[in-house]
Design brief:
This protein is of the alpha+beta class. It has helices spanning 13-22, 55-62, 68-73, and strands at residues 2-9, 37-42, 45-50, 77-85. A four-stranded antiparallel sheet has the order 2-3-1-4, with no helix packed on it.
Length: 93
């Protein structure tokens, strides 16, 4: 499954991105990390595209309050909104 995560940042984009790049979540264990894309919207908002995500493995990491990912991101992430992304045909007349 392909996802788009909207990340609401409570520190700053640069601080959050440094931790994101250190990859405490081990994204390669649940997604195709070679295709992960990150975009800065502003200093407190980022968008992350994840491809070929194993939802069960990702949920195990994100829902574990004691995971390295959660402890590393506690100071940086206010909340995440996660959306499923699917290809679609162009609209027809």
């Amino acid at each position: 499954m392909n996802l788009l995560a909207v990340v609401y940042i409570k520190s700053s984009y640069d601080e959050w991105k440094t931790v994101f790049d250190e990859d405490p979540a081990g994204r390669a264990n649940f997604a195709d990390e070679t295709r992960t894309r990150v975009a800065k919207v502003d200093d407190n908002l980022a968008m992350v595209q994840l491809f070929d995500v194993d939802m069960e493995k990702m949920a195990a990491v994100l829902n574990d309050a004691n995971s390295a990912a959660n402890s590393a991101m506690n100071d940086h992430v206010e909340k995440r909104e996660i959306y499923k992304v699917e290809p679609m045909a162009p609209p027809s007349k």
